[in-house]
Amino acid sequence: MAKGQFPIEKFQQLQTPFYYYDTELLRHTLQTINDEANKHEGFVVHYAVKANANPELLRIIRAAGLGADCVSGGEIETALKAGFPASKIVFAGVGKSDWEINLGLDNDIFCFNVESIPELEVINELAAQKGKTARVAFRLNPNVGAHTHANITTGLAENKFGIAMRDMLSVIEEASAMRHVKVVGLHFHIGSQILDMGDFEALCNRVNELQTQLENHRIRVENINVGGGLGIDYQHPNRVPIPEFKAYFDTYAKKLKLRSGQTLHFELGRAVVAQCGSLITRTLYIKKGAVKQFCIVDAGFTDLIRPALYQAYHKIENISSEKEPQTYDVVGPICESTDVFAKQIDLNACQRGDLLAIRSAGAYGEIMASQYNCRRLPQGYTSDEL
Length: 386
Hints:
By secondary structure, the protein is of the alpha/beta class. Helix 8 links the parallel strand 8 and strand 9. The chain folds into 2 domains: 119 residues, Lyase, Ornithine Decarboxylase, Chain A, domain 1; 251 residues, TIM Barrel (Alpha-Beta Barrel), CATH 3.20.20.10. It starts with 7 loop residues before the first helix and ends with a strand. Helix 4 packs parallel to helix 5 and helix 5 packs across helix 6.
């Protein structure tokens, strides 16, 4: 059975469960992003900090020149601490608190992605108190669907995100009357884990229509932000460790009609870090049930919640065994029936003490860990330190 390469002897000395990050793969991924994005004039890439805020990973991502896409004041603080320049930080999110807005204003971040008129009014008011002008982009809801899980679709009219298309002109006109905000762009995001480039083409078509409408009213913006959303291959982390960045950026280059001098911004998260991370867990017991056998491990959905939350698939490998495969349900110790990582999967025969690698866990893994059942949070280690 094909498996990833891991420093198993060093793993034996560590308390499980823990996250392991292949920083060589991360650097290769970032190089590919830069190579492909730099082929197109005006393309600017930000990293979505919500995917993984591990300090070592952030340091590597910042060193590669990416900006930071933040959705909370805590993420802004984390990005600044990691060395991201404020001039490369964008602040999105449907519910920004006053202290978070003030944090962005005090640090002169690049842009606030605004989701409603009431939010815009608050930003204008807080900026006025500081004698500043906030740069804002309006997040518009393009009513574009995405071929992905319903819980991570964000661009439909029924979703909570963004300003309705029909209100675009009136919102921009209202903003123009405010003295302490400057409209610099439009922001979109249609979903996550998208593998069908046709979804991004549909967004391009909608953006093109909007730009034409705005030009008819003599309105022009400096920046277009199309969010992120590019998915990864969860089925084949060894065969496809780096996502289809060429197809992704080429789609926008061919289909989205930028105006002269405009920049196109991207906010990639999962596609940057997912494949470099694995959750390493130790087998506690093999339990033979009436109709199936269970591999009970010491990691639970407190460490990786995606399978329980989204019914998400993660490839699992027994990195301690080369024995003939057997079929297992891989489950954790949490007192919930949903604490299941996989059902009826084939693994090299497992026994107590075997280490399992739950792959493609670099995004929305460690960052979403909780202390339910008073469990300890998992540690994160990189290949640079092991």
